[in-house]
Protein 1
Amino acid sequence: MPLLRVEEAQGRILAHFRPLEPEPVEILDALGRVLAEDVISPLDIPPFTNSAMDGYALRAADTAGTSREKPVALRVLGNAAAGYPVDLAVVPGTAVRIMTGAPLPAGADAVVRFEDTSEAAGQAERDLESSILIEILRPAEVGENVRLAGEDVAAGEIVLRAGAVIRPQEVGVLASLGRKTVQVHRRPRVAVLATGDELVAIDEPVTPGKIRNSNEYSTAALVLRDGGIPIRLGIARDNIEHLTAKIREGLEQRVDLFLTSAGVSVGDYDMVKNVLASEGQMHFWQVAIKPGKPLAFGQVRGVPLIGLPGNPVAAMVAYEAFARPAILTMQGRTAQSHPALRAVLDEDVTNSGRRHYMRARVRRQDNRYHVTTRGSGVNVQGSGILSSMTWANCFVVVPETVTFLPAGSEVEVQIPDLMNI
């Protein structure tokens, strides 16, 4: 069987996925999710012209030619505080003492900071309250330290467009618009099922011939990281009745995607493949990817199913390459690749003709990124060395057409978690 290219497998899988229907959520719950509607502002932001500084609101024309040596004295009409409208009008020769955010009084077209007035030159506040005049020590320009109504957002403007990912700054904008809820694409429900007679639950003793069920937890954690809702189904044993029951249990949960691990390799018993095929329409592929190669994809009673390899690292790499793009697509995301950069390789690496996602660690050194894979040996890059994933903070992606890279080569590095760099 010829090996399927990674892009071809991805394309065949993604052809079956579309963004899920919208649902309304509170704006804090929308964090990290994708807008399913255009958000239009019902008002100007700011809703009124206001001061950007503490100082004096005045007419810029009244300060022409002013200097510290020749200050101009203006009569203070009163005070304007943030949050309170002021019934004062600035006329030639007058000013209003104003706080940041306070509405600009009628007639004023500029604000001069306290630092540029006689108030900052040592005049006590109690004297200011009884004083009629304030000296302006430099000329002001029209619009100086003034925030105009609608200068941030105009009423009727599309502020956020459908497809935008909600970050903290979008949450702040939504709050400023008075939006308590917003329409976002629904999070996909993803069934997660590990298969194999050799598996035991994490709270069970490991007896001879058994291993703990790590795939269920790592896969569920990846689904959570990528915004999905994992529906953990536990372990399916290698018999027709139990495996069929587990598959049907997952389908009863109204899931949008089914993920299984193990049982889809050429060398595996036919149990898993036969049950999946009997419950739906499945394809069993050999993909040019390392670690991993066996991959299953199809639909079981209308629900897409991706069968991941059983080795723990291979399962995680196959998830990153094939399941993650599907989960992101269902959430309306268009950018599905991990952030990537170029880095200098510390050591020689070899490759076997498949696209190799090598566990690696990238660091900043001498104004460049450098990356180490600890070599190409089985003990380092073997598909069963799950602990290597905790050491790694990136993948070095070696193309299938490259069999050898010497130390000093520049390579592509994919970074699943920028926080680890």
Protein 2
Amino acid sequence: MTGGLVVGFDLDMTLVDSRPGIAAILHRLNAESAYGIDVERHVEVLGPPLSHMLSPYLAPEQLEPAIARFRALYPSVAVEPTVVLPGARAALAAVRELGGRIVVLTGKHEPNALLHLQHLDLPYDRLIGDRWESGKTEALREEGADVYVGDHEGDMRSAKAAGAVAVGVPTGGIGPEALRAAGADVLLTGLDQLPGWLAATYG
């Protein structure tokens, strides 16, 4: 796609804090099926697909049923406790003020990602879910993204591979040094700094 400014955003721990709800679902899965998932470890750093999170604890034949159960529980358990991270609304508004398009690009199952955007009334032009690493890179290229903002090393690698400016925010458990090592072009302390950077760079 071509045209004006296109800014992509990761969802979990970039725009929203979904840790309480995800933790609640994982605890439920442990209670139901005794998987022994290390819940605290996995909610500390969100980003990779659900299959990556669950596969160390499950036999191969258990994986798909567990993913289906997680996704079925998600709307009733994980949506309500999720909150917008500081600066996220202002960051999205800043893209709009510059006449830009907002692409929310996430590894989360797309129908569940949509529930968050709707529940929290977050503006966007395109939502793309179920993408990770090379999948995010492909989507960023398809959307003609100029910038991709994320909290995980995978987000930085995806942005760089797509030719987008990789903007890292250490709001999801990954520190600035690791984000820089993964290719971040810009490091912000949080999304509250994004409007100023966008205005200075694209205004």
Protein 3
Amino acid sequence: MGYKSGIEIGKNFIIFFKTMMTFLPLVFILIGLFEVWVKQEVIERHLGDQSGILGYFWALLLAGTAVGGLYVAFPVASSLYKKGARISTIFTYIGAAAVCRVPMTLFEASYLGMKFTFIRLMVAIPLIIFSSILFEKYLKDKKFSINNED
């Protein structure tokens, strides 16, 4: 039978682990700086309850420029929540961070073509926003809240 598959899995794990250890500490430092430098009023104004449709635009823009995928998106989403971002904009940010990041989109376009990428984004973005709004309404009906014990 052999151990070739197991050895390959181990090698891939080590490569992945090294990659994560090279950029995750820097990302968490940046998230810490975000927590300190970005004022709560700024987040409330641009991503909070009164932000309206522009809040979704800012969430998409923030997610599109993010690196690290969901490893980074969840800590940033927690920080946004603590600073007063609306739940639906946070869900939009997480969804967009999963499917609309610029580096990933450019990579996809180079392999699958601009037409495919454009259609995928034009379908995905409205669905992300629509489902985020539905999730927010559902959670508000359930009186959802997160305990932010630091």
Protein 4
Amino acid sequence: DENRDDMVARLASSVYKQGEAARDANDMAAAVDHFRRVAVLAPGSSIVPTAEYDAAAALIGLERWGEAAGVLEDFRARYPDHELNNDVDEKLAAAYLKSDQPVKAAGELERIASTSTDHALREQSLWQAQELYEQAGMIGETARVLTNYVNEFSYPVEPAIEARQKLAGIYEQQGDTAGYHYWLNEIVIADAGAGSERSTRTKYLAAKASMVLAEPVARTYRAITLTVPLDQSLPAKKSQMERALDAYARAADYGVSEVTTAATYRIAEIYDDFGRALMESQRPAGLNTDEFEQYEILLEEQAFPFEEQAIDLHEVNVGRLSDGVYDEWVKASLEALAKLMPARYAKTEKSENAVASMY
């Protein structure tokens, strides 16, 4: 009939107004029933999408999260281009969260992060998504979202560096050393370029990262043995030693107490190791007794300054006791001094007096 479309529209409007009246009367259950009847009685009406959306909102008000999620899913599937879809994403994320569906909630939050024009909302959504994946034990998805976060949100600097720290932790747990070191290096780079946004926290994370990154450099140094002819093996070991010292020095430069004491200890350890490596180096063949003794004296002369440097650095670490700093690395320096200078440091009761005498 020619009047059919008009009658359907009037019927849809009438039922919708019943839903509005129930909602205004705070009878949300009745409002849901009326709003959902619109699609049943007048499926072709233009008001159906709005009625479905309002039904979902009422279900959320009633905390009927599972039903609300179902209505919202149906809405998005049937009306993909509707202007209310942006709000649907947020409501659906909330419904999934409340109905204990964290993985689906994370997916919705990713969707919001990719479609919203609100920068802060996009950032918060992506961060929350990776947290939900992490809670669900989906480490691969967590790493993927964190990587997206770092690529898209370099600022503010601190949360972006925290994201890098989490990524480094993930790769470390997975035994992926290359990935672990990559993200540690990214922390160092991000902190160095942070400018006015550089904070105590970013420097702390960068200092810890630098300390870890120095370790493989030191291992490479230790792996080089001194063999004859010494004038060929010595430059290679000394060159790598300088690289290791520079790496630990960069870590110490951040001024983070626990990193500074660790780096100081490691630097002292390298000097001590270099001196011992000289003394334990391969001797040339064919030396007579006098030549052998002269060679030993020469090695001792070469090794002595490195041992002295190690002692000086360990004493610098121990000197921090007067500032109230006593951690595992200060303790380790005390133990090292007890071996290097037993007459002065071997007894615990003398160690503190020795430190006091330095000031």
